[in-house]
Amino acid sequence: MMARNTVETNTAPVSDVFGKSGPLRLETPFHPRIAALMHTHAWYDWSGYLSAHSLWDEELEYFAIRSQAALFDLSPMVKYRIEGPDAEAFCDRLTLRDVTRLKPLRVQYTAWCDDAGEVIDDGTLFRLSETRFRLCCQERHLPWLLDGAIGFDVAIEEETEAIAGLALQGPTSFAVLQAAGFGEIGSLKPFGIAEFAHEGGRVTISRTGFTGDLGYELFVDAGDALSLWDRLWEAGRLHGLNAIGFGALDRARIEAGFLIANVDFVTVDAALRADRARMPDEIGLGWLVDMKKERFNGRRAIEAARAKGANRHVLVGLEIEGNVPAEHAIVYHRKKREAGIVTAAIWSPMLKRNIAIASLQRPYGDTVTDDLWVEIYALHELRYVKLMKRARIVERPFLKLDRRRATPPGGF
Questions:
Q1: Higher pLDDT, 24 or 269
Q2: Is 3.30.750.210 the CATH classification of the domain at 312-399?
Q3: Does residue 6 register a pLDDT over 50?
Q4: What would be an example GO MF term here (predicted)?
């Protein structure tokens, strides 16, 4: 089956989506359960898989994340198994952070670059044992990973289809896991990993997520996916568990200040023009760079750019007056000079603030931070109206929730 990369919302029934004349998509292992709950028929393509943008109501799905518990299908996320005696050394050379400090059963948010110091992708690195890792990311990089593994005693294999993934997020997520028989998860700290028996196999649960809330991610063999879903779904009946699509997750991740590759920044592999790729410092990921490491891909270029002050961009959080989201709006300085563009924006229901993530061209956002404006085109009564709204730079994350890190979590 050929996978297509164009992201779209398809409002046709599922039977039409898979018709002979329509586009073909792969089904995730959880698709039968999600399709049974689908009311909006708002499907989109995620890495060649048929995925839900929303299932019943995007706004209420968002509130399920923030006030109850939400279940999101992570299966299309690209996953690589990296295993062997040199797995640690390879991952340490590959990524920006110090992997030697990553203990077994821990997770590390990280990124990796080419030799020019430009970001190839960001993602999470799971250390499942001394010699076994799982790298999760947005884009596919197997040829590049295999080339980089030359000289290392390591095996690399894509396991996207073999491993199904679920994100269980929200204040009652811990209560759902308790009710499902995973009660020992209460001692798990943020970025920790635990393994449990399930249907004769194993389910890996990490205290991670993309919402900035209390939450977990669960990984299981694809053949055990439906039984895991049913186990959680039954346990969640009294805890407000709902299935959600990407639209709701996207709102939550913006509040949390998290980035999406090829949305908030352009990866070097996807950039059509050389000046579109970004170094870690240009997208707010400079804190990931561990210059104490002797070697990693892009180290010399990143060090030289810092020494010369050559980084040209900065990623910032904005708070914008009014309540009209400024997605893809142009940012101006003093209403005249273009300073950058908004990459993601929402009116935050939790914060009651109009927030955005924006990529600015230095010196804007760096030494020049005052008198910033965004140009919004809003549809009012069948006409687009241009709104010039004042913006100010604020810290990310926009939303900080104590329950995200509380150990043990509250029952809520």
A1: 269
A2: no
A3: no
A4: transferase activity
- Topology (CATH level 3) of domain 14-77+161-244: Gyrase A; domain 2 (3.30.1360)
For tokens 């706004």, name the residue: 59
CA–CA separation, 361 and 349 (whole Å): 29
The DSSP secondary-structure symbol of 334 reads T
CA-to-CA dists, residue 131 to 111, 148, 156, 162, 308, angstroms: 20, 17, 12, 20, 38
State the CB neighbour count (10 A cutoff) for residue 221: 17
C-alpha 338/C-alpha 187 separation (Å) is: 49
Which two three-digit tokens encode residue 166? 């679920």
Q: How far apart are CA 244 and CA 239, in angstroms?
A: 15
Give residue 22's pLDDT band: very low, low, confident or very high (50, 70, 90): low
Domain borders along the chain are: 14-77+161-244, 78-158, 312-399
Mean pLDDT for the stretch of residues 51-69: 97
| Segment 239-249, tens digit of pLDDT | 999 999 999 99
Q: For residue 212, which amino acid is it?
A: G
Strands 241-243 and 69-73: parallel
- Most distant CA atoms of the chain, gap in Å: 64
Contacts of 218 (CB under 8 A, 6+ apart): 165, 166, 167, 168, 203, 204, 205, 228, 232
Q: Are 22 and 12 a contacting pair, CB within 8 Å?
A: yes
- Dist CA 226 CA 239 (whole Å): 20
The distance of Cα 407 from the centroid of its chain, to the nearest Å, equals 23
Structure tokens at 83: 């295993």
Region 366-375: mean pLDDT is 97
Q: For residue 316, what are its two tokens?
A: 């910032």
Segment 241-278, tens digit of pLDDT: 999 999 999 999 999 999 999 999 999 999 999 889 99
- Residues in binding site for substrate: 217
Per-residue burial over 19-34, b = 16 or more CB atoms within 10 Å of its CB, e = otherwise? eeeebebbbbbbbebb
**Least confident among 5-19, 57-71, 321-335, 393-407:** 5-19
How many Cβ atoms sit within 10 Å of the Cβ of residue 353? 17
Q: Is 172 left (phi over 0), alpha (psi -120 to 50) or beta?
A: alpha
Q: Which CATH superfamily, name and number, covers 78-158?
A: Aminomethyltransferase beta-barrel domains (3.30.70.1400)
Known binding-site residues equal: 217
Closest CA to 259 of 111, 72, 365, 59: 111
